[in-house]
Amino acid sequence: MSSHREAPEIAKDPVADSSDLYAFVSPDKRDTVTLIANYVPLQLPSGGPNFFEFGDDVRYEIHIDNDGDGRPDVTYRFEFTTEITNPNSFLYNTGPIDSLDSKNWNRRQFYSLTRVADGREHRLAHKLPCPPCNVGPLSTPKYADLVRQATYSLSTGERVFAGQRADGFFVDLGAIFDLGTLRPFQQLHVAGKKIFKAEGEPVNATDRMNVHSIAVQVPLERVRRRANRYGAADQASVIGVWTSASRRQVRVLGDRGGADTSTGPFTQVSRLGNPLFNEVIVPMSKKDLWNSLPPTEDKRFAQFVEQPELAALLPALYPDVFPNLDKLTKAKKARADLVAILLTGVPAGLIDGFTNATGDVQADMLRLNTAIPPSKRPDRFGVLGGDLAGFPNGRRVGDDVVSIALRAIAGVTVPLVDKTFRPDAAAAAVTPGLSAADVTAPFLANFPYLGTPYDGFNNPPAAS
């Protein structure tokens, strides 16, 4: 849901669909920032014989803005190619895959990595192999070893990985899209109170699903603009991050088994900055348009941030639970708190010791203050929980972004800009009821942080 199938057209093109984006100061290497972009969402681990992969015809990019204009100052571009080693076999592998050059592996994928900065392109690496998908204990018996082999340290200071990972996003999709039901509050729902007598147990709909990740760990001096100092109060410490996928404008289908041909300039078909922005904020009729535009055009969508539809739905769906929010939305007062969180960054003076403002340009980006060190005891509610190293200051893999977003929309953050507003008691408790503990594959302490992908043999678990 963060951005899984968030727009009508990109839902038909999962290979180019950006599902989650993370940006955080690396807890195990604090002089670097880690950027992770997930694609190809909702993968069934047992989906053979054509297991999931990146698109050879898609250009994947992670962009960094370090001067607040909503335009990329640094871009990391990933481009993939696929090779078949045995054209006479239908199998993904014909035996155990114990190395990245295993002769048993029939369909291998490679990528090049290019850094674009100051108007110049610099090829950092060429034909780096991805690991295979996690097929099962007979096909990929030492999967962690394959991941280590596919994690590269470059001479320019970056570490890089591209391949399958466990989807670390946790959300109760089945409930939320059933008329906005939150199972911990289902008995208070306008329709749910007729059939539910008590709260329900949430279900992590994305658990045991895989994604494909591109991840890069970059020295801070390679993403920040030059400045005399990088304190927590200095704008030079703040970067904005988003990811995109682009395709050639023209595709000609091959006739009678002939190869397809793509030509023309690349055009953007997907992007993602803050989680849930296109999913929840942008109306259905404009979602495809949003995916095609750069962040500099996000002023077009500011009205939907200032008066989000969900803020009006919560009081309607949960009668008498959000009376103060109901008055606020009916007054049609622009939500300056959400504009700051999503479009400009939080200015200094609203939260003690914190800012991630990038300026006046309204642009949907993950804004990260790189001068704020990683937390020794991360709080899953991020800044709302008093943890300034968490969302919306960038995004860590364990941050509960759905609960944070719901609580912000419900009014918890309004007092930052309006001291007279009193949030409803329920606003600070609203949640789908999930956390990182509901992700079966544990997160890693080190790069690339997302857990080992689920294998097809053991998913779902066999009955004992």
TrEMBL record:
<dbReference type="Pfam" id="PF14224">
    <property type="entry name" value="DUF4331"/>
</dbReference>
<protein>
    <recommendedName>
        <fullName>DUF4331 domain-containing protein</fullName>
    </recommendedName>
</protein>
<dbReference type="InterPro" id="IPR025566">
    <property type="entry name" value="DUF4331"/>
</dbReference>
